[in-house]
Amino acid sequence: MKRMIVMLCLVATTSGCSTIVRGSRQDVEVKTNPPGAMARINTQQCFTPCTLQNVSRKAESVIITHEGSEKSYTLDRSFNFFTTIVGNWWNYVWPGVIVDAMSGAMFSIEDINLELAPALKTEAKAPST
Where are the beta strands (DSSP E) in the chain? Predict the structure, then answer.
């Protein structure tokens, strides 16, 4: 019985509400204009428009490859106030918030919509005589 109480106390003080409710991964929709660019987050890649699945909420950037050029874009995030703060209120707030921060679950990655600039095309000129 004592062991059960200790286990319940540990679970209650070391769990994060966002981590439990939302998880530490999410799907991210990627759209580009024009479509057909390759999007990559960590080891996953797809051709836009597409959805990258089970992306870690701790991911920092998406790499877009289009017409031979590659550029990194910082991912936009939003703070999950309700599940991080209110959801951890019963848990004396801080232990759960720390767990949510470490798992990345306190944030959501926003879907990606990018307007890509066309690549500069250079034409070879014939030498003048």
Answer: 25-33, 38-41, 44-47, 50-56, 61-66, 69-74, 77-79, 107-109, 112-115
Domain residues of the chain, as ranges? 7-115
Is 42 or 105 the better-scoring residue by pLDDT?
42
Contacts of 37 (CB under 8 A, 6+ apart): 47, 48, 64, 65, 66, 114, 116
Q: Is the pTM of this model over 0.85?
A: no
104: buried, middle or exposed (CB in 10 Å: 19+, 13-18, 0-12)? Answer: buried
Q: Residues of the chain with pLDDT > 70: what percent? A: 67
Q: If DSSP states are collapsed to H, E and C, what string results for 31-56?
A: EEECCCCEEEECCEEEECCEEEEEEE
